[in-house]
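Posting for a labmate who doesn't have an account.
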Amino acid sequence: MRASLLALALLAFAPGSYSEITDCSKGTSFFKVNALGFWPDPPVKGENSTISFDYTVPDGPAIDKGTAKYSVTYNFIPISPTTEDLCLSTTCPILPGTYNQSTSSTFPTGLTGTVITKIQWFDVNSKELLCAQIKVKV
């Protein structure tokens, strides 16, 4: 994931803020999200914070291509989304099984308001594999 989008995503964990991490697929993604988490809780400004994803990939063919899309709104203003190769965000091929993946970035300082970050993974046929959303009011 790009560092700047991860930094905005990590705003969801600012001390004294309201934050919510959800599976935004509403049960329609191919992968099943088992748990989403973060640490340290609360994060420390200027130090690394980590987001973790625990998900299960059901039986089926290996996934060796796809896209990862990262969307952010800051104070309800959309920031241009980014899309990159799925295999830059996770190890490919993705085989059936349970995965626990995490990513870290330096926790940002200076932003206030509402930040919503959406992370979506798609296969080559644009079928949604995973969707996670982080919402925070700082």
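Reply:
Got it, the structure tokens are right above this. The two ends are 22 Å apart (CA to CA).
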